[in-house]
Amino acid sequence: MITVLKQGTTKEERDQLIHWFEEQGVKVHVSVGEYQTILGLIGDTSRIDMEMLELLDIVDKVARITEPFKSANRKFHPEDSKIKIGNTACGAGAFAVIAGPCSVENKEQIEEVAKRVKAAGATMFRGGAFKPRTSPYDFQGMKAEGIELLLEAKKATGLPIVTEIMNANHLPLFEEVDVIQVGARNMQNFELLKELGKTKKTILLKRGLANTMKELLMSAEYIMAGGNENIILCERGVRTFETYTRNTLDLSAVPVLHNLTHLPVIVDPSHATGYAKLVKPMALAAAACGADGLMIEVHNQPSKALCDGAQSLTPDQFDALMDQVQKIREVLS
Ligand code: PEP
Ligand code: MN
Question: 53 C-alpha vs ligand 2 centroid, how far in Å?
């Protein structure tokens, strides 16, 4: 971090500020120019509040040189992380495809969709048992019973299962779940993130509806600071003024995040677009721009789905998507 002092700052004022920095545990490199004095701060500056510093009378501007995220930062961990989930993986060349319905609804649905997505080449099976719904009157999920059905599907297909957590008190129910999803609405539920940091579970962290990439990385940092480094990031679209799509898929997040972090980045074109017919083209684009995987909603009867039917693919449509994604991946390799 560097702090540029205003012209006319006295030596006494400058030394007072340097002393304060040193008390915060950072070293200060002083560079006195003809017009400006610049203080270069060396060490862990994460506890220094930039905005507060900028308010001081003697400070002209403050800039961070290194990012506030450390564990997730590629600078300190140059090689891609490969997150292992059972006998499959995500990242460092391993392409993960997580597919399944938005929510777990009944045994027949789960059995059929799990069998079909496995046959098409999905590497993990998803289904929401606890659903974050905008309206309290909408279907809220099958909860513990839903997780049971997912575990049966795991037994039948061998696919690891992915399901969303909304409350850390529910963690005991997730003991046999392979990947715990933190949904967009909980990306900044810091108490939940801290609890997940204490586990060794793989966490699928989705970008919030109106969150920057830096905020997404800081949320990953919350989990990593607790000792859990098994994180997969997910771009699922952000809210904009556009109305033809449910959200706006920010595919630039894939290369930008790849530059900033070693964690794998997957893309969810289902929630990003909101419409089944837009899912395949955006899934192909995600594979083309280097995503480490996809999350796709698939339902055996989308028109009867209790949640997100409009964006759900039929198993046949998912077959076609997998076929083309495979071709894009071959071209890239
Ligand atoms: C989901 O994956 O079903 C979901 C609710 O996604 P998001 O949190 O991205 O809206
Ligand atoms: Mn959904």
Answer: 43
